[in-house]
Amino acid sequence: MSDVVPAALPPPPPTLPELFLGFAKISISGFGGVLAWSRRVLVDEKRWMSPAEFNELYSLCQFLPGPNVINLSVMFGARIHGARGATIAFLGLISPGVALMLVVGALYSRYGALPGLRGILAGLAAAAAGLIVATAAQMAEPLLRQRPKPAHVIAATAFVAIGILHFPLQWVLALLIPISIALAWIEAL
To answer: Which of 20, 94, 175, 189 has its CA 20 to 30 A from that of 104?
Structure first.
């Protein structure tokens, strides 16, 4: 008898209702942004994506115009079920939040001037900031395990140039994008 334990098989792709409910859970769980919950649900809980797949898809979504997580939902849904999957994932992400914000907006217009409510909202904003930092650390972890590549140097250069030195974004991108493409092309050879 062998002591070899078979590797856990990845779960089957989500059905359309599972896709809707998964993105609805992300929508309802997130406050101040749903990136943290997107990663938690898609990678950790449902295992619909690996950490590397999530990072790759999310990085592409950051490059595209529009809200990143909405782009993520559409692209993930399209990958699984085509146009219907994209629509279902989008509606799963948007519908609960829209309904909830209509209710919260009505309550805030009535009770928003209460001093206690302002303190609660400030505390929630701090919690949301903490979630963003924790998610960034989780997303960086697979990258830090890799041997440094030219892409890491490009990312660090962009961070320093824009975030620390405050160079204009368009000029930094105009310089780094062609260099990045050239380095990726050379690396692929």
So the answer is: 20
DSSP-derived 3-state class of residue 53: helix
CA neighbor of 97 nearest in space, from 30, 41, 36: 30
Non-local (6+) Cβ contacts of 32 within 8 A are 124, 125, 127, 128, 129, 131, 132
Are 130 and 106 contacting, i.e. CB atoms less than 8 angstroms apart?
no
Q: So where are the chain's domains?
A: 16-146, 147-189
Ranges 57-66, 72-81, 163-172: which has the least confidence: 57-66
> Which residues lie below 8 Å from residue 10, measured CB to CB, with a gap of 6+?
47
Angle at CA of residue 80, ends 91 and 43, nearest 5°: 85
CA distances from 51 to 55, 72, 143 (A): 6, 14, 10
- Please report which confidence band the pLDDT of residue 144 belongs to, taking 50, 70 and 90 as the band edges: confident
Mean pLDDT of the chain: 87
User: What are the structure tokens assigned to 7, written together?
Assistant: 């590797």
79 within 8 A of 85, measured Cβ to Cβ: yes
